[in-house]
Design a protein that fits this description.
CATH topology of the largest domain in chain A: Dna Topoisomerase Vi A Subunit, Chain: A, domain 2
Radius of gyration of chain A: 22 Å
Order of helices and strands of chain A: HHHEEHEHEHEHEHH
Helix content of chain A: 40-55%
Number of helices of chain A: 9
Largest interface: A-B, 49 and 49 residues
Oligomer: homodimer
Strand content of chain A: 5-15%
Largest sheet of chain A: 4 strands, parallel
Number of strands of chain A: 6
Chain lengths: 204, 204
């Protein structure tokens, strides 16, 4: 459609997740118009990321150092590990400022359809981290979908015999949502996991 | 949020048009997972595009040669020029396979809000192309929005004194659409520009 290298760029952009042909074209023309210095910096960042970024030797989070920022932070609570699927989940949880322990990034979730079994995930590494007896609680924070739930079930079965406290993130109504728009599974979970506030009625 | 260069990449991606922070993060992690060779090729394409692509000396379309493919094609009709805003409009019109003339890319549209006046567009170059008397028709194919219409009005005022045939793309109902969902402006234009099919009723 376009002259050689312009079409190449549109094709490359179109292979990125969530970018369709129209967006790829729009981005390509944006880059054609952009300052050459900006595009050079963008290209350099791409190469730098591939050269520098690897996985934290402890938790499997992405990092540019040997250990990630969380693992390298001496103020973090060593007795709690939160197990997540991906590095972006670490960032999501860090944003809540609720958790002061460390993480373990599995690198995905069990998915028979995609051919991902427990052996493809960093579960062996997790079990190794639990051997020194420092960790007393494991919080499982996999995604609340089919694959995440399967992974959580697998992990719970592996971890409970070790005598640790194993917990799972609460399922329920999203804050700021409308009851009316909650799907029945979420609403069902919210009922199951309901918290008792008081017992004024039974007392009466 | 993320370690240095990962956040840099997310920031760079987030500056592309139509890519929000969530998409930027998703694309960044896609690139982190991607084959290093693929990312190298992507970075090389970015640099190559900036190094090789420039504007066609005749029509202003993007090209890697001195002249674009349309202008260099000896089979194109030299007597008709279709004026468009951007290079992507050339591709859109080429896709219809309806037009056999050549193009003139203005490089934008008149937009007082964005500070773009006629002098910022390739209008001088268009007038120069019309001087040799080869061109007998100019088709104005600017976008059917406020800026495009303003540009069309300006061009019509400039070109009609030159004794050329000046035409404008038809406005009307989009093919495949529903009358019910057409906005009133489009429907109004479709009425204005209605084509007479026969005159059976007046004959009766």
């Amino acid at each position: 459609m376009y002259d050689g290298v312009i079409q190449d760029l549109i094709d490359e952009l179109g292979q990125l997740p969530g970018i369709g042909p129209k967006s790829a074209q729009r981005i390509a023309f944006h880059l054609l118009d952009a300052d050459p210095e900006d595009v050079r910096r963008f290209a350099a960042t791409l190469l730098e990321v591939k050269a520098k970024v690897h996985f934290c030797s402890t938790c499997g989070n992405v990092t540019v150092d040997t250990e990630c920022r969380v693992c390298a932070d001496p103020r973090r609570d060593l007795s709690v590990i939160c197990v997540v699927e991906e590095s972006k989940d670490v960032v999501a949880i860090e944003r809540t400022r609720e958790f002061r322990g460390r993480y373990h990034v599995l690198g995905g979730a069990i998915s028979p359809i995609a051919g991902i079994g427990p052996d493809q995930l960093r579960i062996k590494e997790l079990l190794q981290r639990l051997q020194d007896g420092v960790v007393t609680e494991v919080i499982i924070a996999t995604d609340p979908n089919l694959e995440g739930e399967a992974t959580a079930t697998y992990l719970i079965r592996m971890l409970t015999p070790l005598g640790l406290r194993v917990s799972k993130l609460a399922s329920g109504l999203p804050v700021g949502g409308d009851l009316e728009y909650a799907d029945e599974l979420t609403l069902g979970r919210a009922f199951e996991g309901r918290t008792t506030i008081g017992n004024a009625i039974t007392r009466a």
